[in-house]
Amino acid sequence: MKVGVVTFPGSLDDVDAQRAVRVGGHEAVALWHGEHDLRGVDAVILPGGFSYGDYLRCGAISRFSPVMAEVIEAAGKGMPVLGICNGFQILCESHLLPGALIRNDHRKFVCRDQRLRIENVDTPWTSAYAAGAEITVPLKNGEGGFVADEATLDRLEGEGRVVARYLDHNPNGSLRDIAGITNERGNVVGLMPHPEHAVESLTGPGTEGLGFFTSLVERVLA
Q1: Which residue, 90, 84, 142, is CA-closest to 111?
Q2: What is the pTM of this model?
Q3: Fewer CB near the terminus (10 Å): N or C of the chain?
Q4: Is 194 one of the annotated active-site residues of the chain?
Q5: Which of 33, 92, 143, 194 is catalytic?
């Protein structure tokens, strides 16, 4: 599959995401934030970083990038979209996902290997995992606390739209230990931790993040 990885001014993990795509068996296609062209990709990743310097709010300016008009339209038609960290923030700002990401409750940047439980394996990004799988991937954020009103949280829980949940320790104050969610259709996923940094045994805590990238093949072949 051709997987587009968008680079915004301030993106830090776009090259890492491209590598993860290739390790996962796909073709990585670099997409520029200022273009109105998805170049025929089958899926899109919005990577981590500090797009536009995180001015106004994290992801608030990126939401209006020309390429996001194409991403929003494609997502509405069912294209798989994964937002990692800053990408998760952009998805919330774009209203592709509910809620928001705010400053960590301890007011400090956190960088650690984080244990997660995969709770929804019915998305194009998680189908390679077994339900309830526990994985460890890096986490690095200063504004990673997921918040939403109680009605939205109850709906996410009731509809099984919590994709991943923090285990052992909540690193940023996310409500109900939520680390990632999906939209109603299941094709758009936002995840605060970084699976792209856990796809090769030489670097990172292991390869347990690779499933987010091989899942695309699992989904197609299912």
Answers
A1: 142
A2: 0.96
A3: C
A4: yes
A5: 194
| Beta partners for residue 7, in sequence order | 32
C-beta of residue 30 within 8 angstroms of C-beta of residue 5: yes
CA atoms within 13 A of residue 34's CA, in its CB half-sphere: 2
What's the rounded mean pLDDT across residues 211-219?
87
Alpha helices in 24-99 (DSSP H): 66-76, 86-93
For 151-192, give the DSSP string.
HHHHHHHHTT-EEEEE-S--SS--GGGEEEEE-SSS-EEEES
Determine which one of 33, 58, 70, 85 is catalytic. Answer: 85
Q: Is 111 a catalytic residue?
A: no
Are 195 and 164 spatial neighbours (Cβ–Cβ below 8 Å)?
Answer: no
Tell me how far apart the alpha carbons of residues 66 and 128 are, in angstroms, rounded to a whole number: 32
| Cα–Cα dist 76/99, whole Å | 18
Residue 218: predicted pLDDT: 64
182-200 pLDDT, tens digit each? 999 999 999 999 999 999 9
Determine the distance from the C-alpha atom of residue 221 to the mean position of all C-alpha atoms in its chain, rounded to a whole number.
22
Q: How many CB atoms sit inside 10 A of residue 189's CB?
A: 29
Among residues 70, 119, 196, 208, the one annotated as catalytic is 196
